[in-house]
Specification:
Elements (H helix, E strand, L loop, with lengths): L1 H15 L4 H11 L1 H27 L15 H18 L5 H6 L2 H16 L3 H24 L12 H27 L6
Helix pairs in contact: 1-3, 1-7, 2-3, 4-6, 4-8, 6-7
């Protein structure tokens, strides 16, 4: 469990820095922009590796990963439904589109949908730590980004119908990929029998 908790703490500590502009500016002035970006990426990657290893280890522990609740049977269907807009929003975060403009923070909205859906279908301690942390972070960062008027990596770039169609089509393609093969390959859990 310690590996998962340390990974989550490291990953979110690094990702909380940009939510405090004064702290980020101070760190950039000390290290320089490129070294800051490199350290941010390195610490994020290390945190993510610890999260994956820690979660995987806890999933294999059996009684060391207690079941806190039994997910209801309908939760699987709701999660499958939530993942489609989550993937469309994930794609829209990288494509100037009306979807991106309307969502304001599509990446964070995608993370929130992903985390909420996966909390619904996983009642074990490791999953609550993992998905609960991401859900809380996404909610916090949406509020923070709105207060800071953060516009994300694409700035104020806007798109039209063609970009919306691209975001939806790529989101559907990612959904199909995960549904038929990707989820099983990434997690070992097939979504379809």
């Amino acid at each position: 469990m310690w590996m998962l908790i340390v990974g989550l703490a490291l990953f979110f500590a690094v990702h909380l820095v940009p939510t405090v502009p004064e702290l980020r500016a101070r760190l950039v002035s000390i290290t320089g922009a490129r070294p800051y970006s490199g350290l941010f990426a390195l610490a994020s990657a290390l945190g993510l590796i610890l999260i994956v290893l820690g979660y995987g280890t806890m999933q294999g522990l059996g009684s060391g990963n207690p079941q806190l609740w039994v997910p209801p049977s309908w939760a699987r269907h709701l999660t499958m439904l939530l993942m489609l807009p989550a993937l469309i929003l994930l794609v829209a975060a990288y494509i100037p589109s009306r979807i991106r403009t309307a969502a304001r923070h599509p990446m964070l909205a995608a993370v929130a949908l992903w985390a909420f859906g996966h909390l619904l279908v996983n009642g074990d301690l490791a999953s609550v730590l993992l998905f609960g942390s991401f859900l809380v972070y996404a909610g916090y960062d949406i509020i923070s980004a709105n207060q800071r008027a953060a516009v994300g990596p694409l700035g104020k770039a806007q798109g039209g119908l063609v970009q919306d169609i691209i975001a939806i089509a790529v989101g559907f393609a990612l959904y199909a990929l995960l549904l038929f093969w990707g989820h099983r390959i990434l997690t070992g859990i097939p979504l379809l029998a």
